[in-house]
Amino acid sequence: MLMAVAKRTRKQAGDLWIVLIGIFKLVKGLTMLALGIGLLRLLHRDVATSVTHWIGRLRLDPENQYIHGALVKVFRVTPRQLKELSAGTFVYAAIFLTEGTGLLLRKHWAEYLTLVSTALFLPIEIYEIYRHPTPLKVSVLLINVAILWYLAQRIRRR
């Protein structure tokens, strides 16, 4: 009897982690979806004017070296690059939304998909941190490593 209760409690704790990972993946997916839509909206507009407008609305200093550097890069973006960026962003969003939904529905295939895709994206995340380290990028990398470890242990146990 005591063993059954302990086993059930462990299963519920495992389900909590799966739910949290699913929510994390859904948030990433929705963020990527919003970013993709934003990129598509820029496609038929003057990018420089739109970005300058938002810099003003957010009360950012365009002379700040980081903002200025970002502006220089943004002003060089071509319509073709915007299409490619939005397409890639939608692919990422689809993967993350599929993972999150599958995990929330407690599907075993979603655990495998999440394990594989998280492992495949780690080199890209590490490269991005190497190029431009930020606390947010490092935090996301650490979360993804923890997710990878947890899912590998969970799948191995089953």
Helix-strand blueprint:
Blueprint lengths: L1 H42 L3 H11 L7 H11 L3 H26 L3 H24 L3 H23 L1
Helix pairs in contact: 1-4, 4-5, 5-6
Task: Give structural notes.
- By secondary structure, the protein is mostly helical.
- It contains 6 helices and no strands.
- The longest helix is centred in the first third of the chain and has 42 residues, at 2-43.
List the main descriptive attributes of the protein structure presented here.
elongated, mainly alpha, 158 residues, 6 helices, 0% strand
Question: How would a crystallographer describe the biggest sheet?
Answer: none
Output mean pLDDT.
86
* Helical residue percent band: over 70%
Number of helices: 6
| Sheet/helix structural class | mainly alpha
Number of strands: 0
**Rg (C-alpha, Å):** 20 Å
- The poorly predicted ranges are none
Q: Summary?
A:
By secondary structure, the protein is mostly helical. The protein is built from six helices and no strands.
